[in-house]
Specification:
The complex is a heterotetramer of chains A (284), B (231), C (594) and D (397).
Chain B: E1 4-13, E2 21-29, E3 33-37, H1 44-52, E4 59-64, E5 67-68, H2 74-79, E6 82-85, H3 97-102, H4 114-119, H5 121-125, H6 136-149, E7 154-158, H7 166-181, E8 185-189, H8 193-199, E9 202-207, E10 210-216, H9 222-229
Parallel strand pairs in B: 3-8, 3-9, 6-7, 7-8
Antiparallel strand pairs in B: 1-2, 1-4, 4-5, 9-10
Chain C: H1 2-22, H2 24-50, H3 57-75, H4 78-81, H5 85-104, H6 112-131, H7 133-136, H8 154-177, H9 179-189, H10 191-196, H11 201-227, H12 237-250, H13 257-274, H14 282-307, H15 311-315, H16 317-327, E1 334-335, E2 350-359, E3 362-372, E4 377-381, H17 388-395, E5 403-408, E6 411-412, H18 418-423, E7 426-429, H19 441-451, E8 467-468, H20 470-478, H21 494-507, E9 512-516, H22 524-541, E10 544-548, H23 552-558, E11 561-566, E12 569-574, H24 576-581, H25 583-588
Parallel strand pairs in C: 1-8, 4-10, 4-11, 7-9, 9-10
Antiparallel strand pairs in C: 2-3, 2-5, 5-6, 11-12
Chain D: H1 12-34, E1 41-47, H2 57-73, E2 82-88, H3 93-105, E3 111-114, H4 118-128, E4 134-136, E5 149-151, H5 156-171, E6 175-181, H6 184-199, E7 203-210, H7 219-228, E8 232-236, H8 239-251, E9 259-262, H9 267-273, E10 281-285, H10 294-307, H11 316-335, H12 340-347, E11 350-353, E12 358-361, E13 367-375, E14 382-390
Parallel strand pairs in D: 1-2, 1-3, 3-4, 4-5, 6-7, 6-8, 8-9, 9-10
Antiparallel strand pairs in D: 10-13, 11-12, 12-13, 13-14
The chains are: A mainly alpha (284), B alpha/beta (231), C alpha/beta (594), D alpha/beta (397).
Chain lengths: 284, 231, 594, 397
């Protein structure tokens, strides 16, 4: 089999799966809670900086994962309490407030770390041979990690009653309280989970991207397209959205060029949003 | 001997500016069923919302086992020993039937509720189905079973028989009487007078947000009740 | 009026006085800010009035600026350049209107999808502007754009921008005061309800988007010669986002708020960024701000968003209200034209035959068949869950029919949109009173009045706000509180809302009126009043009423004909006595203490 | 959203008070400022304090200050002490123009220097209209011939004309693949590259552009390059794109046998790319920190003395403004004033100090300068070749 085709196919898979990774957090905050969090990209960026700190401390790369989770729990609790909770009932204002938050976070990071590009040493070097095409091992690992993470989340989502409670709260808040769910606490915890997923994504992608305060901007817009095109709160939609936005970009980049890919993705997004404003797999 | 479990005094309130419930009082003892009836829009549901903390009390107090619970958030109230069947949006449509029943009881197994499923076999057939796809009557039954199965000292039910077939209404009545025998107390809001008479120890009739008629079941004159129901 | 006129003059004088009072520097700084302010006003119209969020206003601003720049370079310069204002303003306006129409058509919502579509469009616009070197000059921009005649120095530029802003604000005030403004605000509160008064909500929203396009076009037209340069950033996402933020900070709901926000934030940013040069101990501060002014501005608008939902303008709400009251002229009503009903006049013939509706496995309507054919009051009764309200929802196509058809005067109307039904003379009152809580009583009634009488264009005529009808006069006699024109519907009691909603339903003067429990939660007196009004309406207007009611005593009193529903189908019909004698009916009401 | 005040109009009076009042309050300092010492020679430097290029801000600021300190130490300009005003060039063109006007009217700036993107340059040129002399300093695509505007930046001729022939000769390169961002600078550079490659006997096997704002990922492009297997890749993506492209390039193993020339490879970008990904990566510019000329050493010494061990990373974007300000000083001294005609006359063949040596302004208002070939393989840009007195190749009259 032609190694070029194999490699581009792997690129396709990588594009979709890595996009999935950075979107997961938003899938929780926007998809479940309906919180239009424009600072999602900055949460990812903060995760990447946690990885930077870890490396500067001389700790092993993987230590960044528990660290970022700790960090994001605190971050999530504070942000939810101060910014999100007062605005649940005003989604558009929430959009603005989080946009402001994203600027604040960027500038704070710039003040702390400077605006420069930081490179991390890739934790796992070298590449694997797959059907005659050699592919960077770490990217394979990212895919594996994401799939594993996803599997865990889905298992949790479908099994644990916690996920069911979130669904219950979002679908029918009054009855949720009627069965004794503390909706405030549950909403906060859900937001925190979303924040942690964003941070986690940041750590994982840090070694293969340019870590700098503007990192988040690369992701937030596409993340929103993925969620809305896919349909709020739908797992299938999450996959479909990533497939369409990430996959199309990768596919067209492979057969044509990046400019056409960029244009096409935007056009397709517009098209889907226009014909299916509630998304492909909206929760009914 | 039955002890006072729940009491509310001079409860008033409503939506925004509008006062819908005006100074309603009542008590509930263990193993007792208090039936509340009245026409649409006389404030029955509003009263429940005030008792359970969904609406702010304008006046009055609500006490559970001697503890003031007026002003607490609904989830706190309901975790403190009350289960509740609202009148509308009564099940979690996005969840499966079993998820609806086990939401707060992860450890619960279907066989734990066998007693209910024997009486309402349709539920057992549909355990895995999304509750949103159930018929109106089935939802009512699901909601009813959910509240009964909470095994809390008090159950509050708003129009539990609305749109339920007669035979199932009878089953509900049997279950309530059985639970009562074990000391469960219920507040049931109903327009279905026959059902109410079949289960309740005391009746309250509301009109214009007030209690216009009150007494032990059978002692209050049926004609006067019907006069207020105007059906 | 007198007052506000005086204030208008004051404003204009103040704006024009800036160069002489504050000097060239401020004149120039503000002149660019004013242009942004004009574009921001457009965001205010869409978001603050019609209730949908445009994230792509920059696209229209950029489009206009490039058109203006190219026009001045290649087509017409000097005095003739001013003629370009026509195409440069019209094109973005029309484009926006068409886009809005395409996106909104067939929907009664404007969720996040619209914001994202406009966002995607503005990203596209930026790419095209950057990549299309030959026309736009690419990334470096379209340079050497000549000045407009009379725009040579900073002061001229300021006066032109200032006058433009005054015109734009006036334009917005006019729109917001005009009927269309009232309807926009109503729409933003309850789009579904608006449709039932016969408005095409898609067209209304497209109109708002179009107006925003016009404003962006106007700003863009002046931007090109003012800067002598147009770069892609103008069409980009950041500009679009800023416009939204300014609108929010200033107060999206008011006419002048968005402009105020643009000016305040614009000035704040520039001062923080370039305010340095004092020397002395402050230098360190200014050095810091020069790098971190964005953070300060961000913090500022987070606080405004959190604590001033109505923006800076919200602070002046009370003052302004009282000022308005001072300046108000007495109300001089004019007679509204008759309703434009399509199709036959006189009593409607409505026929439902074999209607089946199911949601999932739930059977809601089960082969329902009804006929209404005379000016009479038909009552729809039956135990809870029998499908009474669902019957209404099926009529108004919120529920999709699997089988059966609905005919009005023999013509099939199943699946027709709410506004079409209203145009055919079908009115509806909802079970939960759905008046427009942020509007005054008068405006609530007007919205009902205009729906079936005015065309979209005539909604621009302020005089429509003086419309009145004999019917309304009578209703005011029966329900005196309706005469309190300026009371906000949100402050009304439950009973008053019920009455207001009924009054609105009647004001539209439909041929067939669907009433869902009009007396639910009313006191005896109110109930009495409402019943009398309904009876009166039947006599006076030859109105046909289909009414859902639980209260049998009412039914006995008013029903000419009763339909009894059970499990989604018609169980029995006839006059009250006949129905009550019916065994099947008694059977159903077993347990309901019949 | 659903507040009652939603539908009200803010009374115009309040608006006047609010905006007018605020304006007046904020404006008053402006008057005070105007009365300040008029005999200072004011140089305003537009540098990237905000925006994606803001990482260069600290270096740019330090270099500008250093230049001014040295000029003042040497007696200022025509006896006047030089005052440096820092302005933000990282903003949108319209905003930059606003700042420029303020600097002209409020601070009566005598000379402008700018290290920022070309869009902002166009805005400034359009604002100055030749009234005030302006020197543009960073690497750019060439072609700026506006009156009273001087350019000390590296031009395509200086970068490509020197680097490509040298690389082709040294490594015996053949096929060339072009990757750039989709805007004017990369496209112009690639036109030069195509000529140079053809002249060196090579051929172009691919040309790719990535839109600014498109996701920052290069797997597909790198895979395609790998398939085409060129011996040389010309990289004109910038900033974070430059970092991620080179990282991806290396992690797919292309760095083993393909030579890269990145047109905007300065020390900060290289830090982002990282040592592991820099094998066979070259840059060609008029400044590298590693340049060992006496002037360069002296400059670095002064820079470190000023900034201490917290000194921000030196790079071309930063030292360029140092050269620009020195040019401003020299040309004004020679002209005796900042009168446009006088400056134009004085500028011709004027030598002035840069961070690495002496540059000469020519009559095309561009600079002849020494270019350096930097090899990044070691993770530091080490000078492997020096091209003396390279002409800008610009043709301004």
């Amino acid at each position: 089999m032609d190694p070029l085709i194999v490699a581009q196919t792997l690129n396709f898979a990588y594009a979709v799966i890595s996009l999935l990774l950075v979107v997961l957090g938003l899938a929780v905050t926007l998809g479940w809670l309906g919180v239009m969090n424009l600072a999602h990209g900055e949460f990812v960026m903060l995760g990447a900086y946690v990885a930077v700190v870890t490396e500067r401390m001389g700790w092993p790369f993987w230590a960044a994962i528990p660290l970022t989770i700790l960090f994001c729990i605190v971050l999530g609790i504070v942000v939810e309490r101060l910014l999100i909770r007062p605005l649940y009932s005003r989604p558009f204002d929430l959009l603005l407030a989080t946009w402001g938050l994203s600027i604040l976070i960027r500038k704070i990071v710039e003040a702390a770390f400077g605006g420069g590009y930081i490179s991390l040493t890739v934790p796992v070097k070298g590449s694997l041979d797959i059907l005659g095409a050699s592919y960077p091992t770490y990217r394979i690992l990212i895919m594996a990690f994401t799939v594993a993470l996803l599997a865990m989340l889905l298992a949790w989502y479908f099994r644990s009653s916690a996920a069911a409670r979130v669904k219950a709260m979002v679908g029918n808040p009054m009855l949720a309280q009627a069965v004794g769910i503390d909706t405030n606490a549950l909403a906060r915890n859900t937001f925190v989970v979303g924040t942690c997923l964003a941070g986690l994504a940041g750590v994982i992608i840090a070694p293969v991207t340019s870590v700098n305060p503007f990192l988040g901007l690369d992701y937030v817009i596409n993340a929103f397209f993925v969620i809305i095109v896919g349909g709020l709160g739908s797992v299938l939609g999450l996959f479909a959205g990533s497939g369409i936005i990430g996959g199309l970009d990768s596919f067209v980049s492979a057969i044509l060029d990046r400019t056409s890919a960029f244009f096409l993705v935007l056009l397709i997004a517009i098209f889907f949003l226009w014909l299916r404003p509630r998304g492909l797999f909206a929760r009914n | 001997m039955s002890a006072e479990l729940f009491r509310f005094d001079g409860v008033s309130g409503g939506y925004g500016e509008a006062i819908v419930v005006r100074g309603v009082s009542g008590t509930l003892d263990t193993g007792e069923v208090l039936g509340i009836t009245g026409r649409n829009g006389v404030g029955k549901t509003t009263l429940l919302n005030l008792l359970l903390g969904y609406l702010p009390l304008r006046l009055g107090s609500v006490r559970l086992g001697g503890l003031e619970i007026g002003g607490l958030r609904p989830d706190r109230v309901l975790r403190s020993g009350i289960s509740y069947c609202p009148q509308e949006r009564i099940v979690f449509d996005d969840l499966g039937v079993w998820e609806n029943l086990s939401l707060m009881h992860p450890a619960r197994k279907p066989e734990d509720l066998a007693a209910y499923f024997d009486i309402f076999p349709r539920l057992r057939e549909r355990l895995t189905q999304r509750a949103g796809t159930l018929s109106g009557g089935e939802r009512k039954i699901l909601s009813f079973v959910r509240a009964m199965a909470e095994d809390l000292p008090i159950a509050v039910m708003d129009e539990p028989t609305e749109g339920v077939q007669q035979e199932n209404i009878d089953h509900m009545a049997d279950l309530i009487r059985a639970a009562k025998a074990e000391g469960k107390a219920l507040i049931v809001v109903e327009q279905n007078l026959a059902f109410l008479e079949a289960i309740s120890d005391r009746l309250m009739v509301m009109d214009q947000g007030r209690i216009v008629l009150e007494g032990r079941t059978g002692e209050v004159s049926r004609d006067r009740i019907i006069g207020h129901l105007q059906v | 009026m007198v007052y506000s006129r005086a204030i208008d003059i004051l404003l204009i004088v103040a704006v024009l006085a800036v160069p002489t009072v504050l000097g060239d520097l401020w004149a120039y700084n503000l002149s660019l800010v004013y242009l942004y302010a004009i574009a921001t006003l457009g965001v205010g119209l869409c978001w603050g009035q019609a209730g949908f969020l445009p994230l792509g206003q920059g696209m229209f601003l950029g489009l206009a600026a490039y058109m203006s720049g190219l026009g001045l370079i290649h087509v017409a310069g000097g005095v003739w350049g001013w003629l370009l204002v026509v195409p440069v303003v019209i094109v973005p306006g029309v484009l926006a209107f068409v886009i809005g129409l395409l996106i909104f058509r067939g929907r009664t919502e404007s969720g996040p999808f619209f914001a994202l579509i406009t966002l995607a469009m503005t990203l596209l616009a930026f790419q095209i502007a950057t990549a299309w070197n030959s026309v736009t000059g690419g990334f470096n921009g379209l340079r050497n754009i000549p000045d407009l005649a009379g725009m040579s120095d900073f002061t001229d530029r300021y006066y032109i921008a200032g006058v433009a802003l005054i015109l734009a604000v006036a334009f917005c005030m006019w729109l917001i005061e005009a009927p269309i403004g009232v309807v926009w605000r109503a729409l933003s509160q309850n789009e579904r309800r608006i449709a039932f008064f016969g408005y095409s909500t898609a067209t209304l929203k497209a109109a708002a988007f179009g107006a925003a396009g016009l404003l962006a076009g106007f700003a863009g037209f002046l931007y090109a010669p003012q800067q002598n340069l147009v770069t892609p950033t103008l069409a980009g996402f950041v500009v679009s986002a800023n416009l939204v933020i300014w609108a929010a900070v200033g107060g999206r709901g008011s006419a002048i708020g968005p402009a105020l926000g643009a000016v305040l934030v614009g000035v704040l940013s520039t001062e923080l960024r370039d305010g340095g040069g004092f020397g002395g101990g402050l230098d360190a501060l200014w050095d810091f701000l020069a790098r971190f002014w964005e953070a300060v501005v961000a913090g500022f608008f987070i606080i405004v968003v959190l604590f001033l939902p109505n923006g800076i303008a919200g602070l002046f709400a009370k003052l302004n209200a009282s000022l308005k009251r001072l300046g108000r002229l007495p109300f001089r009503p004019i007679l509204a034209p008759p309703v434009r009903t399509e199709g036959a006049a006189g009593p409607p013939a409505l026929a439902l035959s074999g209607c089946r509706v199911a949601a999932g496995e739930v059977r809601i309507l089960n082969g329902l068949t009804l006929r209404l054919d005379r000016a009479a009051i038909y009552c729809l009764i039956g135990p809870n869950g029998a499908g009474k309200t669902s019957t209404f929802n099926t009529l108004s196509t919120e529920l999709r029919m699997q089988e059966g058809e609905i005919r009005l005067d023999g013509e099939v109307i199943s699946g027709a949109a709410a506004d079409t039904l209203a145009a055919k003379g079908i009115g509806r009152k909802f079970q939960i009173p759905s008046v427009f809580p942020n509007l005054t009583i008068a405006d609530n009634l007007h919205v009902a009045l205009w729906g079936t009488r005015a065309r979209l264009v005539s909604l621009l005529r302020p005089s429509l706000r003086r419309w009145d009808t004999p019917l309304l006069a009578t209703l005011r006699e029966r329900f005196p509180f309706l005469a309190q024109r300026d009371r906000i519907a949100g402050d009304l009691s439950h009973g008053e809302r019920q009455v207001l909603e009924l009054a609105m339903a009647l004001a539209a003067e439909p041929r067939l009126l669907l009433l869902d429990e009009p007396c639910a939660g009313l006191s005896h007196e109110d109930t009495r009043q409402v019943i009398d009004a309904i009876l009166w309406a039947r006599e006076e207007l030859g109105l046909t009423v289909l009414l859902i009611e639980h209260d049998m005593s009412l039914v006995r009193e008013i029903a000419d004909h009763v339909f009894v529903m059970h499990q989604g189908a018609l169980l029995a019909e006839g006059d009250v006595a006949a129905v009550q004698a019916d065994d099947k009916v008694r059977e159903v009401y077993v347990g309901m203490a019949s | 959203m659903t507040k009652r005040t939603k539908s009200l109009n803010l009374s115009r009076r309040q608006f006047v008070l609010a905006s007018g009042g605020a304006a007046a309050a904020l404006a008053s300092p402006a008057f005070i400022r105007d009365l300040k010492a008029a005999d200072e020679f004011k140089i305003a430097a537009f540098i990237a304090l905000t925006g994606p290029a803001s990482l260069f801000g600290p270096t740019q600021k330090a270099c500008a200050e250093l230049a001014v300190e040295q000029i003042n130490a040497a007696g200022g300009i025509n006896g006047r002490e030089v005052k440096l005003i820092i302005a933000d060039g990282g903003v949108a063109p319209g905003e930059a123009a606003k700042t420029a006007v303020r600097l002209m009217l409020r601070d009566k700036v005598d000379f402008f220097a700018g290290s920022h993107d070309s869009a902002v340059r166009q805005a400034l040129v359009a604002t100055f209209k030749g009234k005030t002399p302006y020197v543009y300093t960073p690497i750019y695509e060439g072609g700026e011939c506006a009156p009273n505007t001087y350019v000390v930046a590296d031009t395509p001729a200086q970068q490509i004309g020197t680097a490509i022939p040298w690389l082709y000769k040294k490594h015996g390169l053949k096929d060339c693949y072009l990757v750039g961002n989709d805007y004017v600078w990369p496209r112009v550079l690639n036109e030069h590259t195509k000529k140079a490659v053809a002249a060196a006997g090579g051929s172009i096997v691919g040309e790719e552009y990535v839109p600014l704002g498109a996701p920052n990922k290069f797997e597909e492009i790198v895979t395609r390059i790998k398939a085409k297997n060129p011996s040389f890749v010309m990289v004109t993506v910038i900033g974070a794109y430059n970092v991620v492209f080179n990282q991806t390039f290396a992690s797919f193993g292309l760095d083993e046998n393909i030579t890269r020339l990145s047109a905007l490879l300065e020390e900060n970008t290289l830090l982002g790319i990282g040592k592991d990904n820099a094998k066979g990566l070259y840059g060609c510019m008029s400044y590298f920190e590693s340049v060992a000329s006496p002037d360069s050493e002296a400059f670095k010494k002064a820079y470190l003395a000023k900034m201490g061990d917290k000194a921000p990373q030196l790079s071309l974007i930063g030292t360029d403004i140092y050269a620009g300000i020195n040019f401003a000083a020299e040309v004004t001294k020679k002209a005796g004033s900042t009168d446009a005609a006088a400056v134009a006359k004085a500028a011709v063949d004027l030598p002035f100090k840069s961070a690495v040596g002496t540059w000469v302004m020519r009559s095309n208002r561009h600079v002849d300068k020494t270019m350096y070939m930097g090899d990044a393989s070691s993770g530091k840009l080490e000078v492997v070749e020096t091209f003396k007195d390279v002409a800008s190749g610009e043709t301004c009259k």
